[in-house]
Design goal:
single chain; mainly alpha; Four Helix Bundle (Hemerythrin (Met), subunit A); 5 helices; 0% strand; elongated
């Protein structure tokens, strides 16, 4: 891709359906958390698999036009994916304590994703690059 960074970032976002992917991942997390709150371990287990698949799909759209955004997204996706794998294992065992920790790891991943989104908005708003 050629052109200024802000333009390449916008093109990358549109070409990868980035916003839709992130919204899907957030929805997956909410489904896991809802199942956890109801102690519905079979549903939590299923939603953990769905999240893992969606994160892998989003991760396949990397790199972004900037190394910093790519790194932050990669770290967020890693936390989310690792959390989803642990979530599946711990939901299988109906381990409420470990599942709570898994949710925190996934929440940390979502925080990194939010940081990346804010970086992207700053790049585009300020027409960086």
């Amino acid at each position: 891709m050629n052109g200024p960074v802000y333009k390449r970032m916008s093109d990358w976002e549109n070409g990868t359906s980035f916003t839709g992917s992130i919204n899907t991942i957030k929805h997956d997390y909410q489904n896991i958390n809802g199942a956890f709150l109801k102690l519905n371990y079979p549903s939590a287990k299923t939603f953990c698999v769905v999240l893992g698949n969606d994160v892998q799909s989003a991760n396949g759209n990397l790199p972004t036009p900037t190394p910093t955004v790519t790194l932050v997204l990669s770290e967020g996706y890693t936390d989310l994916y690792n959390g989803s794998v642990k979530c599946y294992e711990d939901a299988t065992k109906s381990d409420k304590t470990k599942l709570s920790g898994d949710l925190q790891l996934m929440k940390n991943g979502l925080g990194r994703i939010d940081t990346a989104v804010n970086l992207i908005k700053t790049i585009e708003k300020n027409r960086i690059g």
